[in-house]
Please model this.
Amino acid sequence: MDIRKTERLISEINRIHRLYSEDYFETGKVEKLNLSRTISHIPKEHILRYRLNLHESINDYLVKSDLDDVNYYYRVKTAESILDKIRRYSESAEQYPVNNWMNDIFGCRTILCKEEIGKALDGVDLWREKYGLKNWYLRNKDGYKGVHIYFKNNSNFYFPWELQLWDAADIESNIESHRRQKRNFV
Model:
């Protein structure tokens, strides 16, 4: 995938995140809670209702996107995985804002070659500014390596979404790392 497609993927995820979040939070049908607060202020039901609605409706948004020629994978986090994450962060001595760790209820992934990863790393600061992205970082730990990009459209009331950029050479080690680190709740 060339770097223009990567930028288009970022732009489209950001656009869909904004549209979905506005449709969900700005209609007055659900309570808007400031997700920059800790989990003690955010009922787990608020998170689970969001997850269920997103799971039921995300394809309606994606089918109307400009991504027909872009290869990507996506998932909506399971309720079990969310509850496990809530449990772990609730038990932590340090309490972090919910939008700092409940940032991947919706997640996309695309696979790039080494050269494209390099170009993405060169462009991600510009894209962060251009698209108002929450943040990004390069994770390289426990056999996992990937660029994580987060979308929240400048609102502490919208759950962030995540895009992971993986180098094709890291697929097997990343999958194995996810298997070891991310699926303990099963």
The CA atoms of residues 113 and 169 lie 8 Å apart.
